Amino acid sequence: MNSSLFRFFILVLTILFFSHLISVSPSFDAFNQEWIDKHTRDNGVTGIAKFLAVSVFLLSIGLPRQLVAFMGGYAFGFAEGVIYSTLAATLSCATVMAVSRYFARPIIIQHFEMRVRKLDHFLLRSPFLKSVIIRLLPVGNNLLTNIFAGVSKIPRRSFILGSTIGYIPQMAV
Question: Which of 57, 61, 133, 150 would give a disulfide with 97, using CB separation of 3.0 to 4.6 Å?
Fold first, then answer.
């Protein structure tokens, strides 16, 4: 099987998987106090797993991470809320970056090669530090930042670790 056909097959499976997740996950509006009370609070490991799964999914399709941090604090208290919401944001970051790198990068390179090279040139100097700084800024879109990182050549480990460190202050606030 050639590479393009395999990539297309994986893309179809990914779309089907995300479509299924959309059908069984709460919407942005339904991820609220009532959902938290019913599915996560005082439900032990199952509640934590549900919170993480839904949060990672919703963050991966554009939910603001501040909302996940607020819900995590509500469900688990300050310390655990910061830990679980930061973990969810980190897992979402890694997921979106991987999907973007695998599917979007080849297409974007074909059409915007020079712009991607400029982005790479900027990000490849001190990638960890730049990732921390980008995440510390209270502006920007988390989802788009993860997609751009996936399209670039920034090292995964540096970006994900830097993002995790940069997430912590906002998640705590």
Answer: 150
Counting Cβ atoms within 10 Å, is residue 95 exposed (0-12), middle (13-18) or buried (19+)? middle
Q: Is 61 helix (H, G, I), strand (E, B) or coil?
A: coil
Contact of 162 with 128, CB cutoff 8 Å:
yes
Q: How far apart are the C-alpha atoms of 152 and 117, rounded to whole Å?
A: 8
121-155 per-position pLDDT tens digit: 888 899 999 999 999 987 788 888 999 999 999 99
Beta strands in the chain (DSSP E): none
Phi (first) and psi of residue 137, to 5 degrees: -70, 135
Whole-angstrom distance, CA of residue 167 vs CA of residue 163: 6
pTM of the model: 0.82
